[in-house]
Amino acid sequence: MWRVDLTWAHVPILDSNQINHLVSLCDSAEHVRSSSVQLAVESNVPFGVFPSYPVPHSLNYGAPLKDEEAFLFKHYVDHVALIMMPYDDQRNPWKSSYPAEALHSKSQEQRALLHAMIAQNLLMQAAKYYTLAIEELRSCMEGSPAEYASFIAAISTLMFVEIYSGHSATWRTHFNGAWAILKSREADEPWNLSEFAWASTQSLCLINILNESSIKYHEKAPLGQDQDQNLRLIHKTPSAFISSASSFGFTIGDTQLLMSCIIDINKLALDIQKEGDVDIIDKAVNDLYSRLEACRESQVKGMPNDENDSSTTSKEYRISWHHLNAFIAATHIYLHRTIFDLPPSNEIIKNYVGEVFENVEKFLDAGGGNLSLWPAFIAAVEANEAQHVDAARKWLDFAVSVGMGNRFKAKIIVEKAWSLREKLAKEAGTSCGDISVDWRDVMVNLDLDILLV
Known about the structure:
By secondary structure, the protein is mainly α. Among the domains are: 120 residues, no CATH class; 154 residues, no CATH class. The chain has 16 helices and no strands. Helix 2 crosses helix 4. The longest helix is centred in the first third of the chain and has 34 residues. It is globular. The protein starts with 15 loop residues before the first helix and ends in an 8-residue tail after the last helix. 31% of the residues are buried.
């Protein structure tokens, strides 16, 4: 009689890592034609019912694929590999040796191959669905889009695809198109149709406000060129929409009052370029000071009681509080640089730059997520003191780690502004802090056009 207790006597016991690895191989290698990852011809388990993989005798094997990786890897083998050759062939290396090598994942090079294959798969999928979205939008535009909110949201989302991929100019084509639709419907106030309509309109208006902060008056399109979708146009944000809800601005961590200040700084800058009335300009500046002070007082009243409170509610509040503080300080910088052209050595600029990065650091330390680009960027280009430059570099390193293409372009602009300031200071025989460099000029000279979101 066969002793049941001896059934598995000579089979090694697998730890959890080994089990996860084998399950991962089963999930992701079933269609890979390679002897190195095929199932064994003969079973090594008792009763010989199930095929098996050889059991690893050490931990020197690749880490198990995550579910998402396994799914994307299988899609690569089943679909992407087939179009890597003009016809199917059993010798197709992208269907055999490439995936077999990547699945080992023992070395850094093999992990790089795995990640590169997944990236190629994702890019092809992205291109496919991007094209579908464009075709569907074109079809909608042949008539009059019936679903305003979905139409605006779709165009805006394609715009963010361009922004996040680092295409520094093509995003504006989508933006100008979406804005044209908004303006054509403005009289009907379509944002009141639903919560979604309001949210999609808010996103577009916030983009417009931040976009205006990167455009000088002389860059405005000449009369008669409005049809060029790539022009850096200046659009007027509907005041009726801005006042439609007190929560305007919340999706970028800002407030209705502060966004209104940024709008008016943009407008004031245009008035100055057009040599507006000095008394009117002085009145506008004083009004901006009062409103910014109101923003600051509101923040002081709402200051978190305990920075060490680890409760979820308190943590979320601290994160949003520091983010808004950074925005307020950056708006002060934007006002004094845009209207008064103060250099980095000015105490006002220095103090607010320090305040921005103090709040950025606390935001990140508290576990904050993807910090809005505008406030930190506005401070970074004016950083001159050693500790401020270090803080700006630390933020830039974090920003590019998020993987969004416009962050990489922002870093290029910031570092170019620093180097240009240093070059001009040497030529003038003065300190860097005494040199004003307009980052908008730097951006244009670099042939870049980024959106600070």
